[in-house]
Amino acid sequence: MTTTTTGDLTRLTAVQMADALAAGEATSVQLTQAHLDRIERYNPSLNAFLLIDAEGALATAREVDEARARGEELPRLAGVPIAVKDIACTKGLTTTAGSRMLEGFVPPYDATIVGKLRAARMPILGKTNMDEFAMGSSTEHSAFGPTRNPWDLDRIPGGSGGGSSAAVAGFLAPLAIGSDTGGSIRQPGAVTGTVGVKPTYGGVSRYGVIALASSLDQIGPCARTVADAALLHEVLGGHDPLDSTSIDAPVPPVVAAATGTRDLTGLRVGVVREIGDTGEGSAFQPGVIQRFEESLEQLRALGAQIVEVSCPHFVYAMAAYYLILPSEASSNLARYDAMRYGARTTPDDSPSAEQVMAASRDQAFGDEVKRRIILGTYALSSGYYDAYYGQAQKVRTLIARDFEAAFEQADVLVSPTAPTTAFRIGDKMQDPMAMYLNDIATIPANLAGVPGMSIPSGLAKEDGLPVGIQILAPAMEDQRLYAVGAALEEALRVAQDGYVFEKAPEIEVRS
Amino acid sequence: MSNLSRDDVAHVAMLARIQLEDHELDRLAGQLDQIVDWVGQVNEVAADDVPPMSHPLPLVNVTRPDEVRPSLSQEEALANAPAADDGRFGVPRILDEE
């Protein structure tokens, strides 16, 4: 390996970085500094990071290098830097969830996943931009300005985890943490040409992660390859007594699956007829469909059998989701009362606590957050609960049953991850309904709690931008995603003469 | 099926403790009416015999022994408060003056 200049180091995969560190071909300080240099140069163009912790990251890197020099046994990813979505609490480091409400909030504790990154001795480069409280599909709803897509600075990087995916796609970090409530890891992965995984619900602790919709939220890895994602998945996963929804079972063997056989003989891959159906035709762009069909051909060539399955209730998933999410969010975001933490606005005339709370919430929440809180409050209000929230929860049952039936006919399900490639910044900001359609293929998995992964399937012919394919598996069978994802990734790499992420253009420097 | 008026939105916003300004009410009322109309399609499908599913995991109550454990210090707990006084959160009046 030739890794003589710091510029080269950022192009390595996390697996290659870990190997280079173990072999003494690079130090963690060199690796970390190389990423910090790139962040300094390109973050003004991308706005992927809201906070950069150069000092903290380098301190961890130095400790790892010293420990390695002493011959200490270290975790596999020790010394490999990482970025964390600004939704996870980091002790002593400002955490905002992309909101003015939490501007300047410095958590007094670490989220469990952040503690796991520290135990894995991974330098934390900083906190990545996101849609406010993870509400959005484009990272345009951040109170701190939109993140831009490294493939084209005039386009969105997906959302809500656009900062994490842009950082990984732009080589500002080899790995990042995301959170996925309706597709916020997978959809940004698709439109930035990276790998994003939503583990089984409950497979990764949410303790210390700022809550959006508690029955849907899941933390997971953003990476450039399936094997890199698997390494991070195993760091993050596992039971946490501090999260009562945490599954008390071993982490599925995802690293073994990602590095195992590439032969998919006998595997049944289901294509869901209804995914992408808006009720008025397909939501998918032609170039997205074309790449998807080519991926199916690759899966066949690997020995898989493609079967069509029907999930008749998936067409109602979006509607159910946009009732359940706002309802849970309206409850979770009630904690922002301007009393214990968060922004406070005090009206002039000797106000009551209630008036201070109402004025503060109007001032500090953005439009999308207010829209969803009010929608959720309405859906839960007396007289409407049965017609909206109650009905949505029944639809959820029907979608879970659809998955059960589909997984009797197929081992995994596949679909395009997002209906289109990255759209232009500003194009959908005035039309919430058009924005919501971005999550049409990813939402069913959140409602049922099953795991999902997006891997790059190529570039769309019409615009040369990345397209993703989504793989879904039954709950607690996360390793199937990695086995299928790794095999398909390798087949596509050979067929397309390189990984998608390697084809990203150099980022234009804008200040 | 929905007809979410501007007054309805103002009422719900009050329940949600958000003091919307007039121009926000005008914009949100139209958008919310459209969204509520669309999400109402959940009424087309789920029959009475379908049980609601609130959560993807079969949850049981999780408890732990009632033992004193380390927690945040008073200073840490108050560190992010908009106002604090004498080791307590500083809040505006909660009860009416009379």
From TrEMBL, chain A:
<comment type="similarity">
    <text>Belongs to the amidase family. GatA subfamily.</text>
</comment>
<keyword id="KW-0808">Transferase</keyword>
<dbReference type="Pfam" id="PF01425">
    <property type="entry name" value="Amidase"/>
</dbReference>
<dbReference type="GO" id="GO:0016740">
    <property type="term" value="F:transferase activity"/>
</dbReference>
<dbReference type="InterPro" id="IPR000120">
    <property type="entry name" value="Amidase"/>
</dbReference>
<feature type="domain" description="Amidase">
    <location>
        <begin position="31"/>
        <end position="481"/>
    </location>
</feature>
<dbReference type="GO" id="GO:0050567">
    <property type="term" value="F:glutaminyl-tRNA synthase (glutamine-hydrolyzing) activity"/>
</dbReference>
<dbReference type="InterPro" id="IPR020556">
    <property type="entry name" value="Amidase_CS"/>
</dbReference>
<comment type="function">
    <text>Allows the formation of correctly charged Gln-tRNA(Gln) through the transamidation of misacylated Glu-tRNA(Gln) in organisms which lack glutaminyl-tRNA synthetase. The reaction takes place in the presence of glutamine and ATP through an activated gamma-phospho-Glu-tRNA(Gln).</text>
</comment>
<dbReference type="InterPro" id="IPR004412">
    <property type="entry name" value="GatA"/>
</dbReference>
<feature type="active site" description="Acyl-ester intermediate">
    <location>
        <position position="184"/>
    </location>
</feature>
<feature type="active site" description="Charge relay system">
    <location>
        <position position="160"/>
    </location>
</feature>
<dbReference type="InterPro" id="IPR023631">
    <property type="entry name" value="Amidase_dom"/>
</dbReference>
<keyword id="KW-0067">ATP-binding</keyword>
<protein>
    <recommendedName>
        <fullName>Glutamyl-tRNA(Gln) amidotransferase subunit A</fullName>
        <ecNumber>6.3.5.7</ecNumber>
    </recommendedName>
</protein>
<comment type="subunit">
    <text>Heterotrimer of A, B and C subunits.</text>
</comment>
<feature type="active site" description="Charge relay system">
    <location>
        <position position="85"/>
    </location>
</feature>
<keyword id="KW-0547">Nucleotide-binding</keyword>
<dbReference type="GO" id="GO:0030956">
    <property type="term" value="C:glutamyl-tRNA(Gln) amidotransferase complex"/>
</dbReference>
<dbReference type="GO" id="GO:0006412">
    <property type="term" value="P:translation"/>
</dbReference>
<dbReference type="GO" id="GO:0005524">
    <property type="term" value="F:ATP binding"/>
</dbReference>
<keyword id="KW-0648">Protein biosynthesis</keyword>
UniProtKB/TrEMBL annotation, chain B:
<dbReference type="GO" id="GO:0006450">
    <property type="term" value="P:regulation of translational fidelity"/>
</dbReference>
<dbReference type="GO" id="GO:0050566">
    <property type="term" value="F:asparaginyl-tRNA synthase (glutamine-hydrolyzing) activity"/>
</dbReference>
<dbReference type="InterPro" id="IPR036113">
    <property type="entry name" value="Asp/Glu-ADT_sf_sub_c"/>
</dbReference>
<dbReference type="Pfam" id="PF02686">
    <property type="entry name" value="GatC"/>
</dbReference>
<dbReference type="GO" id="GO:0006412">
    <property type="term" value="P:translation"/>
</dbReference>
<dbReference type="GO" id="GO:0050567">
    <property type="term" value="F:glutaminyl-tRNA synthase (glutamine-hydrolyzing) activity"/>
</dbReference>
<keyword id="KW-0067">ATP-binding</keyword>
<keyword id="KW-0547">Nucleotide-binding</keyword>
<keyword id="KW-0808">Transferase</keyword>
<keyword id="KW-0436">Ligase</keyword>
<comment type="subunit">
    <text>Heterotrimer of A, B and C subunits.</text>
</comment>
<dbReference type="GO" id="GO:0005524">
    <property type="term" value="F:ATP binding"/>
</dbReference>
<dbReference type="InterPro" id="IPR003837">
    <property type="entry name" value="GatC"/>
</dbReference>
<comment type="function">
    <text>Allows the formation of correctly charged Asn-tRNA(Asn) or Gln-tRNA(Gln) through the transamidation of misacylated Asp-tRNA(Asn) or Glu-tRNA(Gln) in organisms which lack either or both of asparaginyl-tRNA or glutaminyl-tRNA synthetases. The reaction takes place in the presence of glutamine and ATP through an activated phospho-Asp-tRNA(Asn) or phospho-Glu-tRNA(Gln).</text>
</comment>
<feature type="region of interest" description="Disordered">
    <location>
        <begin position="76"/>
        <end position="98"/>
    </location>
</feature>
<keyword id="KW-0648">Protein biosynthesis</keyword>
<dbReference type="GO" id="GO:0070681">
    <property type="term" value="P:glutaminyl-tRNAGln biosynthesis via transamidation"/>
</dbReference>
<dbReference type="GO" id="GO:0016740">
    <property type="term" value="F:transferase activity"/>
</dbReference>
<comment type="similarity">
    <text>Belongs to the GatC family.</text>
</comment>
<protein>
    <recommendedName>
        <fullName>Aspartyl/glutamyl-tRNA(Asn/Gln) amidotransferase subunit C</fullName>
        <ecNumber>6.3.5.-</ecNumber>
    </recommendedName>
</protein>
